Amino acid sequence: MTLPDKIDEWIKEAETRPASALTIMRLVANRMRELNERNEELLAENIALQDGSRVQDYQKRIVHLEYQLEMLKRRLGGDPGLSALESLTEETETANILVYNVRGQVLRLEAGQASGRLGRIRDELAFNGEWPRVLSVSEQDELLLLFTSGRIGTCPVAEVPLSEPGSEWKWAEASLPNEPHAGELLACIMPLSNMPLSDYFLQTSRRGCVKKTMTSLSETILSKNYLGKGTIQKADQAFDALLCQKNDRHAILTYEGRLLGLDVESLPYSAEERIRLTASDYVVASFVLPQEASLLCLTQTGKVVQREASILELAKSPLARGQALISPARLEQGTRFVGAVPVRDGERIAVLDADGNLNLYEARTVAGAGTLEARALALSIGVVPAPAAQANQTTNKS
Amino acid sequence: MSIKVGLDFGTSNSGIAVYDGHRVTILPIDGQNVQPEVVKTLLYITRDYQAYIGQEAVELYYRDNVNRQRRFVKQWAGEIDYHGADMHYVRDIYVYVDELKPGRLLQYIKTALRKEGYRGTQIFERYYTVGDLAQTYLRLLKNRAEGILGEKIEAATLGRPVKFAESPENDRKAEDTLRQAAYEAGFKQVDFELEPIAAALDYEQTLAKPQNVVIFDFGGGTLDIAVMRLGGGERKVYASGGVDVAGSDFDRAIIQKRMLAHFGLGKIQHQPEILEMIQAVPDWMALPELATPLNRNTLDKAIRAGLAPARLKALQTLIYNDLAFTFYNRVEAAKIALSDSGATVISLDDKGVALWELYTRHQFENDIFDYISKVEKVLFDTLSSAGLEPGQVDAVVKTGGSSNIPLFSSLLGRIFGAKKVKQSDAFSSVVAGLAIRAGM
């Protein structure tokens, strides 16, 4: 049936039931508006194709992918055949937990399958007022170490010696994959395996400055060993770096319980302060919050505050205060957050307490109970992905 | 303690109700549905043979299937013996199986009961007979009802159409299969009542004096008519009749007459494989089965050759992105909307498909016009078997979703007089009547 025939039928309907004429006109007008919008999009696409900018975009992506492939080849020690890629997928099943301090000392432990106590650090925990951080990575991953000077270093996880689980550890026994230079501290460690699939490096500073860098620049970044501090003020210092996609939602949590959601796409390429903090407040967690995950925040006394991912509101203004997760009464009583992680079903969390104990908990039970059975104050939290999720894990720490 | 319930196992929707001698309570079986008393007659069976019904089935289907990945593997299916004049050889047969398929959604289980030659279906590694499917659905329905009542249900009065099938043998076979399925689902005592008569029992509650009543039960699978004397302590069935024309036929008519052009009908002339795929569009359950690598290749080639590329891309998206169920629901929603409005839009917008069709009541009435004569015929046949003239009928009670279609309402008004036509609850009058029958 041709369009004129259809129009004749619409007219017949309007003649039979005059009230239908208005409905038909409204539906046709809506359709015209939709088609007009679509037409504009197609025209814009056409212009991009004609002036060559679309071609340039694709060329850039090809160059980027070629570089990622080169990295993958290097990692596998030659041209990756199908069998090598399959073995890579299988290998990524092993999860490791890293505990590191600002002096660049790193302990590596196998996460195993069970929950419970992993061991204890029987040594000094705080250096320069910074607690050790907990991070979960795959054994086959490559690590990027970001220092407070903006310098970076890389190191395969497998090169960090494994520590004995269940025993007591000292920092002197820990590995020092990339020693900090004079005057700098280790700000954070992040895994690099997701880089080919990510759009940006995202940095957050202690005072809430945020900066993104395109992963297409990774060749330069890695060859020059420099990512940047990501800070504006002298007193501020780099806190965290992670990989993300342009459609992700970035979340920042502060010591005094402020949660700020940021749309990655709208973040700046140069460091900008995005959260308005009080003098005593600072950032304790920075992560990408997927829709299917829930947010698990840990207080220094071991209380767990769980929130659905949907709670995260994206900040509309360039400098926002964020959502308050701790009530004023609790703040008054001294409740503070030490960290937060996004968790999914089946994942576990690793918590380091002030006695140096490192414990693993099932996230589901912890969220349900609302508190950890910690004997001392909690210091750090990290998430251990469920086995199936490890291949494309995103790691978080605070 | 066990109780007896009325169970309406409908083609599109089902329900369970209980009667305490004074009042009928229709159980909120499907908490996720907009109308919790109505549960869609849909069954979703996952790869690990977990079964789900109603809105839960729909949501799981959408979550796990739409725009999912596929991976086809060649699987040995059996062998064929070739016998020639002077030779004999055996050949292996392979089929391509989508090993990532998470589950199968099944609709029209009740229609399958009466479908001649249809025995059952293969779901992953297991074969389900029609009885197995009905049993699975009824068992889950019963479990939900027991959960709500907090009591064991051991007996049920099930509704059945006046005619499951034209031939008495198939009709009996369909009822026996349903009865057996109900026993296997855990009901210890099962009896049947004709659906229009059940609807009449519900209407009877509102009557003060006896009336000659025509029950016009027009649902998703069949039209059932009963002519009865009701009220004032009298209850007599003069005649009953039925025909397998109903809502699903109208949906199919809309797709066949209006929508197939969007998928290439009329543009594709000499490609029988593609025409076959287009002709399968009205049957959404058959469509996922067409998602084979061979068909994809055929469509890809045609698209590359510039053969109605936009329409064939839409067809490919419909088949390979599992959008058939969504599409079918859009068509059904448009049909329902036309009961109140003079015009509506059937649209489907997804990656690769941008379908938009303004559809008017005038067009709809033209498309289903052929069914009017069938309905009129069965109505007059039943009246004549009852020995009544239209003027002797005091009330016509409409029930079932399709009875709301204005074309049929005006048909009834024309025959009996508009004042005599009464609307009972489209989805609950049958189940309410079945509960009353169960409580008798």
Q: Can you offer a commentary on this structure?
A:
The complex is a heterodimer of chains A (398) and B (440). Chain A is an alpha+beta fold. Helix content of chain A is 25%, strand content 30%. Chain A has 7 helices and 22 strands. In chain A, strands 7-3-21-20-22 form a 5-stranded mixed β-sheet. A 4-stranded antiparallel β-sheet of chain A has the order 11-9-10-14, with no helix packed on it. In chain A, a hairpin with a 4-residue loop joins strand 16 and strand 17 (304-308). In chain A, helix 1 packs antiparallel against helix 2 (19-50). The N and C termini of chain A lie far apart (64 Å). Chain B has 14 helices and 20 strands. Chain B has helices at residues 54-65, 109-114, 130-149, 168-184, 195-204, 247-259, 272-279, 293-304, 309-320, 324-337, 361-367, 369-386, 406-416, 429-439, and strands spanning 2-9, 13-19, 24-26, 39-40, 42-46, 51-53, 72-83, 88-98, 103-107, 120-123, 126-129, 152-160, 189-194, 211-218, 223-231, 234-243, 343-350, 353-360, 395-399, 421-423. In chain B, strands 1, 2, 3, 4, 12 and 13 form a 6-stranded mixed β-sheet that branches. A 5-stranded mixed β-sheet of chain B has the order 16-15-14-19-20, sandwiched between helices. Chain B has a 3-stranded antiparallel β-sheet with strand order 6-5-9, with helices on both faces. In chain B, a hairpin with a 2-residue loop joins strand 15 and strand 16 (234-243). In chain B, helix 3 packs across helix 4 and helix 5 packs across helix 14 (429-439). Chain B starts with a strand and ends with a helix. In chain B, 46% of the residues are buried. The chains are: A alpha+beta (398), B alpha+beta (440). Chain A binds chain B through residues 1, 6, 9-10, 12-14, 16-17, 19-20, 23-24, 27-28, 31, and chain B through 258, 261, 341-345, 356, 358, 360-363, 366.
